[in-house]
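re: ur question from yesterday

yeah so i grabbed the chain u mentioned. its 95 aa long if i counted rite. heres the sequnce exactly as i have it in my notes:
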Amino acid sequence: MITEFAEIEVKPGHEADFIAGVEASRAVFLAYQGCHALELHRGIESPAHFVLNIKWDDVATHQAFRESPGFQVWRGNVSGFFAGAPKVWHSETVA
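ran it thru and got these structure tokens back, copy pasting raw so excuse formatting
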């Protein structure tokens, strides 16, 4: 299993809208085969800074999701609140 990290800056004043969009998208992610968990973290010092963590079977599963209708739902729910393009990377637990 791998973890996707998506670092997202949200337009100031739209933090609550973004959080609601993530919550509205949760079921779409979790219904996708190979997606196991989703967490959204918000910066304390920078409240418009978020990190989305998603557990996937592997990178290929995440890439396949990006081409699914569910990804379009996700983007429709949140992309209007992005201050810039998300920075996305994957990791594996090693210790």
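noticed a couple things. Strands lie at 2-9, 35-42, 49-56, 87-91. also The chain is about 35% helix and 30% strand.
anyway ttyl
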